[in-house]
Amino acid sequence: MSITATPLESQTENLGGGRRRRPVHVALAGLLAVAASALVPFTAQAAEAPQCELDRPMRFAGMNWESNLVLVEVERHIIKHAYGCDSEVLPVETLPALAALTRGDVDINTEIWLNSVAEPWAKAEATGKVKRIGDLYMGGEAWFIPRYTAERLPELKAAADLPKFKDEFKDPEEPTKGRFYGCPAGWGCEVVSGNLYKALGLEDSFTYFSPGTGATQKAALTAAYQRKENIVFYYWFPTPLVGAMDLVQLELPEYDQELHACLTDVNCADPKPSAYPDNPVFTAVTTSFTQEAPQLTEFLSKVSVPLPLMNQTMAHMDENELEPDEVAKWFLKNHEEVWTQWLPAAAVERVKASL
After folding, report:
1. pLDDT of amino acid 48
2. First-to-final CA distance of the chain
3. The pLDDT of residue 62 is above 80
4. Staple partner for 115: which of 150, 279, 281, 331, CB 3.0–4.6 Å?
5. Distance, C-alpha 128 to centroid of its chain
6. Domains 58-139+280-354 and 141-263 share a fold
7. Residue 268: which H helix or E strand, with range?
8. DSSP H/E element including 304
């Protein structure tokens, strides 16, 4: 809309066939009235903008594995555009993240893998300071070898068979032993895989190699796989790596709930081998957050993604070498059938508009 006006001091008006100078304040009032009417739609839009329940940025725990990184960015995009909330991410590993949640240093831990932190989670929940609010998907964990290794060593079926084949997995830094690639340092799965390594009696025949980060672990395994080297390692799924490689799971003794509970305890005095169960992956927040932000809590409690779609999303990330925020936008643009179920209609429209 454009407004054209002659200089105020020359504005005139017709009155009874004569011309008379119109006072400046009258002309100015008219212009302001026109301008005000033009602003009405924008004022209405501003009134519709969401008001965040929090008067501060929402704090996410940022664990550095792919599925968590992507889901955090999905949630951050939604809370910004659907609920008008700012957010920040605190980079942290699994066990420190749980401690940070209990202390209230972060508001939300998007992905907690229950079987990796069963004992620490039970203790945190018993304090009453944290709450489990929603189930994301059912993950899995295993010890793997590549299929080409399984074909070379047909008698290697179970993790307990590994000592007989230590020379096939030679550790370059300690050639008298094989190398087992465990979980990255500081992650909850490091406790379980380390205890399982001891329970299977591998200390005399294999070194336990603990990568410093998830990226280091992935890079080492990918390089060895491309060179067709024999490797044995712990990994979890859904992940791009498990989806991209042709792998075989090594057999473990039948799952025993009591034995596995001890495997998750860093102070387990006498670890005994047990298979990994299906691993519930859930979202947890502080109890105070549920009181401060009931609408955000309601949204987060509904976040759930089918496992096949998580595998597809991880594969898309890996194949296209995308950053987590790029994958989050791809997910939101291409899978409305999933995330629109998490939100009320008005919030859905605001997120769609942001895309």
Report:
1. 64
2. 27
3. yes
4. 279
5. 24
6. yes
7. none
8. none
Q: Distances in Å between the alpha carbon of 191 and those of 11, 63, 102, 116, 316?
A: 83, 16, 20, 8, 30
Q: Which of 111, 25, 126, 82 is nearest to 310 (CA)?
A: 111
Q: How far apart are CA 253 and CA 200, in angstroms?
A: 10
Find how far residue 167's CA is from the centre of its chain.
38
Annotate 200-256 with DSSP letters as a single string: TT-TTTEEEE--SSHHHHHHHHHHHHHTT---EEEEEES-HHHHHS-EEEPB-PPP-
Model confidence at 210: pLDDT above 60: yes
C-alpha span between 200 and 232 (Å, rounded): 14
Q: What's the confidence (pLDDT) of residue 192?
A: 92
Higher-pLDDT residue of 265 and 13 is: 265
Which of 312 and 152 is assigned the larger pLDDT? 152
Instruction: Say whether 175 sits in a helix, a strand or coil.
Output: strand
- The residues spanned by each domain of the chain are 8-48, 58-139+280-354, 141-263
Measured between alpha carbons, how far is 77 from 74 in angstroms, rounded to an integer? 5
What is the per-residue DSSP string for 251-289? B-PPP-HHHHHHHT-TT-SS----PPPPEEEEEEEEHHH
Architecture label for domain 141-263: 3-Layer(aba) Sandwich (3.40)
Read off the pLDDT of residues 107-139 as tens digits, 9 standing for 90 and up: 999 999 887 788 899 999 999 999 999 999 998
DSSP 342: G
Distant-in-sequence, close-in-space partners of 354: CB < 8 Å, separation ≥ 6: 77, 80, 81
Average pLDDT over residues 327-352: 97
